[in-house]
Amino acid sequence: MTDHEPGENSQPGPFDGSAGADDGDLSDLRSSLSSLSNLATGQLSLEEMLTHVATFAVRAIPGANGAGLTLLEDGRADTIVATDPFVTEVDAIQYGLGEGPCISAAAERRTMRSGSLGSEHRWPTFGPHVDRLGVHSVLSLPLLTPDGVFGAMNVYAHARDVFDEHAAEIGEIFAVPAAIAVQNAHVLDRARRLAANLQTALSTREVVDQALGVLRGSNGWSATEAFEHLRSISRAQRAEVADVAQALVDDAVRAARLRRGGN
Questions:
Q1: For residues 150 and 186, is the Cβ–Cβ distance under 8 A?
Q2: Among 47, 98, 126, 197, which is most buried by a count of CB atoms within 10 Å?
C-alpha cells in the first residue's frame, strides 16, 4: 500500500510484454486511449468532457468500479465529476474533510494507492468514512501538464487490494493524454465563458445607452444627469442598473406603440 512514483521502478511496463500485462488489460487500455483521442472537445461542455475521461479511466484500469475527476482552479477543487453515485459520495467526504488520496496526489504530484482505506494511516479520518461505505481500494493519479497540476483522477474499487503495480502503470499511461485533454477542455471552457461575458457586457452597455437616450430626450438632461437618475432608481429598487435600463426602454417602446396606434 505504498505510493507509486511514475517511472520509479525499472520493471517492464504494460506494453513491454511483462508477465503481469494481461492481453485483455492492454486491449482495454488501447480502446480507452483511442476513445479519448476521438473526443470532439469543441462539441462537449467541460463537465461532459471530464465525465467521458473518467468513464474511459474505469474501462482502462483493471478492477475499477468507478472513477471521479477533479479539475483544480486557483489551487482549489473547482469542477468535480463522477461515473457513479458512490464515487460522488466518496469524493464529497474527501473534499468536505480536506483529506484524502486525490488531495494528496495533486499536492505531491504523484500517484497514491491503497488497498485498505479503513486502516490507511495517511488519511486517518477519510479512510474509516469510506470503509463504512464498502469502498476499500483507491488509485489516485495527478493530471500533470507542462503548466502544472490541472487536477486529479480517483479510481475506486469495492474490494481490497485491487490496484497493484500493473494497474498503477496502466493508470499513469492513461493519465498522460487525459491531462492534456482536460487542459484543452478547460482552456476552451474559459474562452467560451469570456466570450459570453463580453457579449453580456456589450448587451448591457447597449441597453443602458438606450435608456440614457430616452431620459435625455424626455427630460432635456445631460448624460451625467440621466445616468445619476438611472443609478438612483437602481438603488431605490435594489436592482441592477441594466435591469432598470431595460424596463425603462421597454416602457418607452410600449408608449411609442400606443401613440402610433392612437393616430
A1: yes
A2: 126
